[in-house]
Batch of 3 targets.
Target 1
Amino acid sequence: MDRVELMKIEDTFMIESIGLVLAPSFDLPPEGKWKNINETVAIKTPEGLELEVKALFSVVHMNIKDPTVSAKKRWPVLVSLKEVKKESIPVGSTVFVAQSTKLSLVGSNA
């Protein structure tokens, strides 16, 4: 499968219920309804190691108390990896996905 670059990982954090979350997140696309995406993605570490892992692109609600924070920031699309340890995915790694996934996330900016 041909993959395209989606993002450079700026941070990771573990949420027990959903797995290893990659940052940055994505704004919920304005056009149409969002459908969660399950996909095997490729990750290339800064050291050149290449991994294939299962990822979930899903909308989550962030419980942000500040009323000035926009709805976009309260309902982001997160990228999470199940069954992956935090130390396996270093900051600075690059995530590659199917072109259709990138289009779903960033629309015509892909």
Target 2
Amino acid sequence: MNETNNSLAAREVAWWLHPIAIFIGLNGLTGAAAFLADSKIYMELWRTPKYFTEFTALVTVGVIILFSVGARLGTGGHTNYSSEFEWRGAVSFTRALTLFKLSFWLCMMAYAVWIALGVSRGLSIGVLKQIFTGGADVITLRTYLETVPGVTTCTQFGIAAVVLGSIIGSSVGWRLVRGKLVVLFLFALVRALLYSERLAFLELAIPLLVLYFAEPVSWTRRRWLRALVRIAPLAGAVFVYIVFTSFEYFRSWSSYYSARESNLLEFGFWRLLGYYVTSANNSAYLITRIPDSLNAPYFSLHFLWEFPGLNLYVKDLFHWVNFDYNGYMNLLAAGANPEFNNPGGLLSPVVDFGVLGGLAYWGIMGLLTGYLYRLYMINHPLGMCIYPVAFLTLTEIPRYLFWGEGRAFPALAYLLLSALLMVRSATYFESFTQAKLQADRTPLTNC
């Protein structure tokens, strides 16, 4: 009982893990910045006209309200969660460990094949040295590491591995999973730095953070640590700015913008802000260019248009949607700035289904996300597996809908299957004590 209470206390201190808090905070600030920024700022800093008007601001407010109401209903209106719903004893530790190892090796095999293909195309140490020294643009690396459908997608099993590894670590100890988690994060860091894909690191770090707060910890008794966790969003914003600017140095500053701009830190701030503001502005632009909506889940479930085999059926089903990546980029080039090409996630369902359809979409998503948060709070396997990815999506909504992208599908499908497989017909009162003892007796060679 004490362990459960301590665990819940840790999550309640991290108030920003609640879907309503993160949704209102990020989208409210982004919408306000997009609306208040003068049209001259848009043109001078981001070289795009301003499309975010009073209408799109009102729709944004409506979306935030509908999502919040849905999430409130999904959580059941509870602020405290009783320990009588404790599910940890109903999870099979052995199955969780097997599923973790399988997802880890699927990810590693995909990376191995991807790197081998890059080497066959001419990737070498010399090329990497040129990128680090500024002799070549980091974007040129994409010519060697061009994505391969089905292969590069399998690297996304790393998300599932981090989630499952974190569940095991927070429940019975990190010793069995620590080594593999470190390897996953090293690969993601290199990918973020060299492949100019910052999300590759964040999509591992954020689920790990969410599940860390599922672990019963002693810091909740220390005032200064509780205070630090409560202001974590502010510290996180500073951290994101530092990481973003560091990556941007290799991505665009050293090879292009250093000759035009005088201050890297100022450049990093305005460019980071630009990614969020122009995403909302791009959504507003699409609404003006597609006033009758697409009447199809193109942005909401974009992975359907990319899934091998299935995409042919989807394109035939929604045959009136003559839209693809090139068409989207051409549309941006006609009236916005394709350099800032994120479509925005908050208003994308409005582009897909119209205003009423978009509002309904976010009401349903709020209900679903709130329910997943409730399951997460009581350690239900489904909540523990899926809510970290849902929370990751909530952090990315100002830019795009992560849960509807092809890179999210493998992890979500694997984690949903894992949640079903991990639950066994054990009594709810069975504790993890035996599993923890087994982990303590397991030699380090099994890591």
Target 3
Amino acid sequence: MLNPNPMTDVRRPMSVSRMLVAAGLLVVAAGCRQDMHNTPTAQPLRESHFVKGVSSARPLVEGTIARGTLQDDAAFFTGKSDAVLVDALPFPLTAEVLDRGEQRYNIYCAPCHGVSGNGDGMIVKRGFRQPPSYHVDRLRTLPLGHYYDVMTNGFGAMPDYRAQIAPRDRWAIAAYVRALQLSQHAPASEFPQEERDKLSKPAAAAAPGGHK
């Protein structure tokens, strides 16, 4: 019950422990500042707030290589061996490699070079600069490393495709380009004897009306 006579109400003094708790809370409250709520953070590649005139991103240790990017095979990653273009795949040629090369070629190369490699792709028909046909003598005699190098570094009006096409796929495309060239310029000596016999026979004359 409340004391009906406030004049006679006697309050007990605050204990020492409560006083210490209250003092501690005041100290903590006084120590809180707004920047504790909005903690400063380092923005990548911006000037450091800790060291003036220095980027917030620390420079990499000399010789650092990102995981999965070690290029310890010069011929595989550049298409050259001692600055000389290589003329062989750095891995076995299989049907799967050619299938992969055809797929990647149709995605990245055919829009300009054409499906058959004649330089008549769709963007050429719409006004883009026409590349030379893969079937001219100059390009048919170039080593495979040339095509890999062009895909890696670009050539003339063609930009590089190193970001879009993985190294192994570049080699697969180069192999497929050589297959396109052989499809129109394969030497007769490469055919089986029965096929060579067919080639040596004259074509049958067509009968009147367009039928043989």
